Inverse folding.
């Protein structure tokens, strides 16, 4: 054999790599060829270095090129042109003159082995594959539609196969291991190799051993055809398979030349041909199997649809019995019975179940729970896929005790979805049961859940909680602990919750304000204490009074609106109860409340609080929107603050005018009456003069109106300060086209420093500044950040402005409210009721994921859920 010069070998490798690159993807990067340090057996190869002269060699028409083109077989050339992956061949036949060349091409790594032969060179290997090895999988398994009970791993096949099993396995074919899979090594350092799956002929060609299968579970080899048809016992068929890697080449050679193997191969190929053409002897049995598989799939489709519909409506599935055609068998079985009256598939299935012909009904509680798990898992998988594509996310947390007195934490993930038109999404991923609500316990619980979902926390850019001390603490709170690990996870307090606290602070600032809401509560309790009283109230007023709640100020707006716009009707209802009351306590209370509702002071308070709460309520509803942006939220807070400031100037005078009209409608005097309580005995026979109306009105304006409005403005400004700081860091993204050059550069640097942690950064400040200065004309003068992002996606300018694209995505990820978590608690109360208080945490999460993420559930096909259910029901043994 003629020795092969290093320069010539490298020259030939360069040509092959360049030709293969040109065939796959034109105009690729130059090949990075290098000598492999080891061969397939781990033996070291001499390290070589290419010289400049070798890289500059010219035309491929030289002697070696001609010999190479003549020696490469047409089949190998076709494989090289289409990039077909060919596994490594045995290294035992390599000579000292062989060379292995590696090169990177788009889509994977290519290896070329050049061996010197007489008259030229020969190519034994040309591999193109991914750099990253993958787990063993099969292409046919994912596309398979029928429900199967035969495991994929040959080590788990039953010892005695039936004809149906053989038919199913022949249709499915042997499972193949991907070319990039790394086989584990045993104690001796030996392992299976990809070249075992190919048979090398004397002329250098290789034929794939389609009958050879690898078992990942046992780390062994099996013969597909012999395991199907042979009755003899040998390593490649029974037991744990063949694991003698030292003698594997000889064992495979002996087996493939044996008469038993040849007979079984012929039986396999004959059956495969007959199945393909539909000419098997048991064609009728095969048709029955296919029909039965189709029937079960149709039955499961309807059962999955029923369960998903009930879960989305928060309805209980089961009753006190699980038998068909009984009164209290639950919503699920009732839906099945109802659908069976019109659907022939379920009608036939029920007939089989009731007749005892079918032992598997798939209507029991165990199957219901498994189907719920399958549906929720598919929904969660779709959500996690969308989170992975979006990369950046924020977390939203809120806590509440459930009916069984367990602390439930709702975890919401906020992302910016980029498929189609960009949109902000907030996905519910589950309830977390907190054994302790300390800062350390909550932080550990969040990290544990993110690890379970395989969500990398280093991509988190925002966190929002309610205003609890254990979450918002600057030093030891949950937000502080999370920022210690990821400083770029900016904390934003819930603005909607902040607005509620603003109103609460204002209500507690004045005695008159606190007394006013106390009278509203007494008014509600008085009417709600009896159904007859409530019916009398309903005869007079159009809306209901609401119970006073500390966290839901919207209910107070409704209660205030009743006494603001219908005070005369409320007073008439009280007077009617006073006249018809037989109980003196009811009479006295109705008289007292009627006097208070008709008073001038109560009317002024009603007008003032209706004005304040109406302004706050409009802002609060807008802040609860899922698409709310940080800068827009700050603008709304500024508008609310300005509105309250304007109301302070002339609101009290307008309130007096409205209160006078209300008193006139009730035929009451529009005067402030102050009740005095004497703490000492009278020493003289005369009484002091009553306080003048002007002085009393002025005192009410100072002690009530000004105090309440000023407290609301101050609390709003103080509680929204942190939100203003976060919004200021991203403000450049909203007005970069209008800023001067120096101010633009300053704010750009602030944004880039905010999104930098150590050596990691999300943005390049210099490139971002250039992109902002060269931004194209805007379609309209005022644009939000979401509109900017949609503009880049629509015009396909993300490649031109990549840093601005990333910055907008991160800014839109920042949450402004925990309203989504609060809404999930409403669902939780509908799911975990008094009659369902013993529900497990897994079952609660499954139903909640289906109910809350109903939009995602509607996009998942029933076939995907049924395939997941079939994979769960596949058994290792069949009886």
């Amino acid at each position: 054999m003629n020795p092969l010069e290093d320069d010539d070998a490298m020259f030939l490798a360069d040509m092959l790599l360049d030709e293969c690159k040109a065939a796959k993807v034109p105009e690729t990067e130059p090949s990075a060829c290098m000598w492999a340090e080891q061969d397939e057996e781990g033996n070291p190869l001499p390290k070589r270095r290419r010289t400049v002269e070798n890289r500059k060699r010219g035309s491929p028409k030289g002697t070696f090129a001609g010999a190479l083109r003549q020696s490469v077989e047409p089949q190998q050339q076709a494989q090289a042109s289409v990039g077909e992956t060919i596994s490594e061949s045995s290294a035992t036949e390599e000579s000292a003159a062989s060379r292995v060349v590696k090169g990177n091409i788009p889509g994977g790594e290519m290896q070329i082995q050049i061996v010197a032969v007489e008259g030229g060179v020969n190519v034994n290997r040309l591999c193109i594959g991914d750099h990253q090895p993958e787990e063993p999988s099969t292409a046919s398994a994912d596309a398979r539609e029928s429900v199967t009970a035969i495991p994929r791993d040959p080590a788990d096949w039953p010892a005695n196969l039936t004809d149906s099993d053989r038919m199913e396995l022949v249709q499915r074919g042997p499972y193949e291991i991907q070319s990039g899979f790394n086989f584990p090594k045993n104690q001796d350092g030996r392992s299976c190799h990809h070249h075992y799956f190919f048979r090398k002929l004397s002329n250098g060609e290789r034929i794939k051993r389609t009958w050879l299968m690898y078992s990942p579970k046992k780390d062994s080899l099996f013969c597909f055809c012999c395991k199907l048809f042979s009755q003899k016992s040998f390593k490649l068929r029974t037991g744990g398979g063949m694991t003698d890697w030292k003698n594997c080449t000889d064992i495979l050679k002996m087996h493939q030349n044996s008469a038993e193997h040849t007979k079984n191969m012929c039986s396999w190929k004959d059956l495969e041909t007959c199945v393909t053409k539909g000419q098997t002897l048991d064609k009728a049995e095969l048709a029955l199997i296919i029909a039965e598989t189709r029937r079960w799939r149709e039955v499961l489709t309807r059962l999955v649809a029923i369960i998903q519909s009930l879960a989305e409506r928060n309805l209980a599935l089961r009753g006190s019995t699980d038998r068909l055609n009984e009164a209290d068998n639950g919503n699920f079985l009732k839906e099945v019975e109802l659908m069976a009256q019109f659907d022939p598939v379920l009608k036939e299935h029920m007939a089989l179940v009731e007749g005892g012909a079918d032992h598997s009904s798939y209507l029991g509680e165990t199957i219901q729970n498994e189907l719920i798990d399958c549906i929720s898992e598919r929904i969660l998988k779709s959500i996690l896929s969308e989170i992975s594509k979006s990369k950046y996310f924020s977390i939203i947390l809120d806590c509440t005790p459930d009916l069984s007195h367990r602390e439930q934490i709702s975890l919401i993930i906020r992302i910016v979805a980029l498929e189609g038109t960009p949109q902000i999404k907030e996905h519910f991923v589950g309830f977390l049961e907190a054994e302790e609500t300390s800062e350390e316990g909550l932080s550990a619980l969040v990290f544990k859940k993110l690890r379970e979902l395989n969500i990398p926390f280093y991509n988190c850019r925002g966190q929002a909680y309610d205003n609890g001390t254990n979450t918002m603490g600057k030093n030891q709170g949950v937000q502080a602990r999370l920022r210690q690990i990821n400083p770029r996870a900016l904390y934003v307090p819930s603005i909607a919750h902040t607005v509620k606290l603003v109103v609460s602070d204002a209500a507690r600032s004045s005695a008159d304000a606190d007394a006013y809401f106390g009278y509203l509560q007494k008014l509600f309790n008085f009417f709600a204490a009896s159904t007859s009283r409530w019916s009398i109230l309903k005869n007079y007023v159009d809306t209901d009074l609401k119970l006073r709640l500390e966290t839901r100020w919207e209910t107070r707006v409704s209660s205030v609106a009743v006494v603001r716009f219908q005070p005369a009707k409320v007073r008439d209802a009280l007077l009617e109860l006073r006249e018809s009351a037989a109980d003196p306590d009811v009479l006295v209370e109705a008289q007292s409340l009627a006097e208070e509702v008709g008073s001038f002071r109560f009317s002024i308070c009603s007008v003032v609080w209706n004005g304040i709460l109406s302004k706050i309520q409009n802002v609060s509803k807008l802040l609860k929107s899922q698409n709310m942006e940080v800068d827009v939220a700050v603008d709304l807070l500024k508008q609310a603050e300005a509105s309250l400031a304007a109301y302070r100037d002339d609101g009290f005078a307008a309130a007096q005018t409205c209160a006078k009209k209300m008193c006139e409608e009730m035929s009451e005097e529009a005067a402030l009456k102050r009740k005095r309580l004497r703490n000492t005995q009278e020493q003289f026979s005369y009484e002091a003069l009553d306080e003048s109306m002007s002085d009393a009105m002025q005192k009410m304006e100072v002690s009530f109106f000004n105090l309440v409005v000023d407290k609301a403005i101050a609390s709003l400004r103080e509680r929204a300060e942190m939100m203003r700081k976060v919004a200021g860091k991203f403000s450049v993204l909203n007005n970069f086209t209008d800023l001067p050059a120096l101010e633009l550069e300053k704010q750009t640097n602030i944004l880039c420093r905010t999104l930098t942690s150590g050596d990691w950064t999300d943005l390049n400040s210099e490139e971002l500044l250039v992109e902002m200065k060269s931004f194209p004309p805007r379609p309209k003068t005022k644009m939000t950040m979401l509109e900017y992002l949609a503009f880049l996606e629509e015009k396909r300018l993300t490649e031109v402005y990549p840093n601005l694209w990333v910055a907008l995505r991160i800014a839109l990820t920042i949450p402004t409210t925990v309203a989504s978590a609060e809404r999930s608690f409403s669902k939780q109360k509908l799911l975990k009721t008094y009659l369902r208080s013993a529900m497990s945490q897994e079952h609660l999460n499954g139903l909640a994921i289906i109910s809350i993420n109903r939009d995602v559930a509607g996009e998942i096909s029933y076939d995907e859920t049924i395939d997941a259910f079939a994979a769960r029901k596949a058994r290792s043994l069949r009886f």
